[in-house]
Write a structure and sequence with these properties.
450 residues; alpha/beta; Aldehyde Dehydrogenase, Chain A, domain 2; 2 domains
Length: 450
């Protein structure tokens, strides 16, 4: 089916009202969960073929998160759909006010290659829960996973409701966005996000952009060094550093720099052995283009640990580097380490790369935690941890400024894919004449409104 025919079919299906009932949405979510379970092995195999993802990482960050989102949504959807009563001004008595969450309509979800399953299916859960139709565009850079998603969706849903469009993103996405969608959800790079926003602007289409940025990791001098090192290394090298919320660089207090580096080296060896290339728990770089970009960063500083590469196998080992001048988001297994003497200096450095997607703080000082959270702009944060905030379905996830706009996960997923309708109902048994011309009672009006 062509893009034009698919778009027209989804438009007609949405207008029919078929997606509106709670029972319909719940049924589709249960169908989605059922088919994901049936495809689970194929999904895991595809993730390994595309990124060499270890089973633990693949299930935990892709399949398991999808199960959790669906379960949470099924448990809460009826309550989310219920009109929310709010108060009404006394001046409008007798009136009742409510907020109704209405479906947006036709949605477009564009996925990335680094988490090619969950970052397509999780927003789809929100679109279904919100009562919308959806066109999915998985990343062609993760072709095995994209093929599994296409098969899974085509087996489960009618194309007039949910479907997948394949092809090169540079060709397919502009063709799709010649049409007016009611919402576009994009996960990917900032540069492509800007283009998505430009294409959406002529249609006044609202857009959710989940981007990235240089997420800092600040390590105070009053800290549990071993715990900090273990959690930083785990968060950085999960999926070989190809995570939008991975620590992009470490700012460590000069007093504990050497101790932290030693502990991080120990953690790398503990996790991946003396030869990480042989580890079953370490992923690979997505393609040759990304490998070459990351490989070029290795010459921009002093390597403290790692730095080993294998182009044929798209392997770059877990690497610690200092004195590095890397302005771009690294998005790979290279971790620059810098020092600071005063917290204010660290804050000023972070502000040179504004509004990261995530902030990580390791400290035993509540004052350090408070200062960083209050003075810095970021999407989300962890104190004495990394990545964990993303997995909490109760927390909104999204960026700010150059790291994106809009939020999702849990209830926020539902809110993103619905519109808040304001509705006021006024009784007819009382009709105050003061509001009608000829006007009188200005003094009384002032008393109420002041």
């Amino acid at each position: 089916m062509s893009i034009e025919n698919t778009y027209q079919a989804q438009q007609a299906f949405f207008v029919s009202g078929a997606t509106l009932p709670y029972a319909y949405r719940r049924k589709q979510l249960k169908l989605l969960k059922k088919v994901v379970k049936r495809y689970e092995r194929r999904i895991m195999a595809a993730l390994h073929a595309d990124l060499h993802k270890p089973p633990m990482e693949a299930f935990g960050s892709e399949v398991g998160l999808v199960y959790g989102e669906i379960k949470y949504c099924l448990h809460n959807l009826k309550r989310w759909m219920r009109p929310e009563p709010v108060s009404s001004p006394f001046m409008l008595y007798p009136s009742q006010s409510k907020i109704h969450r209405a479906p947006l309509g036709q949605t477009l979800i564009i996925g990335p290659w680094n988490y090619p399953f969950s970052l397509v299916i999780t927003p789809l859960i929100g679109a279904i829960a919100g009562g919308n139709c959806a066109i999915l565009k998985p990343s062609e850079l993760a072709p095995h996973t994209a093929a599994v998603i296409a098969n899974l969706v085509h087996e489960t849903f009618a194309p007039a409701y949910v479907t997948v469009i394949d092809g090169e993103g540079s060709e397919v996405i502009p063709a799709l966005m010649q049409h007016r969608f009611d919402h576009v959800f994009f996960t990917g790079s900032t540069s492509v996000g800007k283009k998505i926003l430009e294409m959406a602007a002529p249609h006044l289409t609202p857009v959710t952009l989940e981007l990235g940025g240089k997420s800092p990791c600040v390590v105070d001098d009053k800290v549990d060094i071993q715990v900090a090192a273990q959690r930083i290394i785990w968060g950085k090298y999960f999926n070989a550093g190809q995570t939008c919320i991975a620590p992009d660089y470490v700012l460590v207090h000069a007093k504990v720099k050497e101790a932290l580096i030693a502990a991080m080296k120990k953690a790398i060896t503990s996790y991946y052995g003396d030869n990480p290339a042989a580890s079953k728990d370490y992923a690979r770089i997505i393609n040759k283009k990304r490998f070459d970009t990351l490989n070029s960063y290795l010459s921009k500083g002093t390597i403290l640990h790692g730095g080993d590469t294998d182009a044929a196998n798209l392997y770059i080992g877990p690497t610690l580097i200092e004195n590095a001048a890397i302005d771009d988001e690294i998005f790979g297994p290279i971790l620059p380490i810098m020092t600071y003497e005063h917290l204010g200096d660290a804050i000023q450095y972070i502000k040179q790369h504004p509004a990261p997607l995530s902030l990580y703080v390791f400290t035993k000082r509540s004052s350090t935690e408070k200062t960083l959270i209050e003075q810095l702009s970021f999407g989300g944060a962890c104190v004495n941890n990394t990545l964990g905030h993303y997995t909490n379905v109760e927390l909104p996830f999204g960026g700010v400024g150059y790291s994106g706009m809009g939020q999702y996960h849990g209830k926020y997923n539902f809110l993103t894919f619905t519109h808040a309708k304001a509705v006021m109902k006024t009784g007819t048994w009382l009709d105050v004449k003061l509001k009608y011309p000829p006007y009188r009672g200005l003094g009384l009006l002032k008393r109420f409104m002041k």
